[in-house]
Amino acid sequence: MADFNEILSRATAEAQDFINNPSRLDQLLLNLEDTLKKVPAIGEAVSELPTMVAMVKSWIKKEYNVSVKVLATMVGAFLYVVKKDDIISDKIPVVGMADDIAVVGLALKFVEPEVKAYKAWRDGRA
After folding, report:
1. What is the pTM of this model?
2. Chain segment 1-56, per-residue pLDDT in tens
């Protein structure tokens, strides 16, 4: 079982590589969407995940500007959900997704003001 801080640190470092490669980042977002389809019930933390994904996609398209720190936090969380190097194996029913949800929830706490600003921007465009 890997150490939580070690895994999160590696994912955050790897996030920078994805941020620098928009096509790779877009593929990660597609993988994330596929992974989320398998989640039987999503909690409050995960409910903002589609907005976070849309925010990164808007950044890729150069429609919306966001700091690299915010991007790295979100992409690091996406990587953790998609990658199979979890603290709790996803093969364990229900419990296996707990660490994924916790990582997304933690990332959301860090970027919540930016996610709210993005929603306001997006809603203003509609």
Report:
1. 0.67
2. 557 778 777 888 888 888 888 878 877 876 776 676 666 656 666 778 888 999 99
Spell out a b/e string for 93-108, using b for 16 or more CB atoms within 10 Å of the CB, else e. eeeebebbbbbbbebb
Spatial contact of 29 and 52, defined as CB atoms under 8 Å apart: no
In the block, residue with structure tokens 């079982």: 1
Domain count, the chain: 1
Cα–Cα distance measured from residue 113 to residue 12, given in angstroms and rounded to the nearest whole number = 20
The whole domain housing 25 covers 4-125
DSSP, residue by residue, 35-83: HHTT-SS--HHHHTHHHHHHHHHHHHTTSS---HHHHHHHHHHHHHHHS
Cα(107)–Cα(76) distance, integer angstroms: 8
Q: Per-residue pLDDT tens for 51-68?
A: 899 999 999 999 999 999
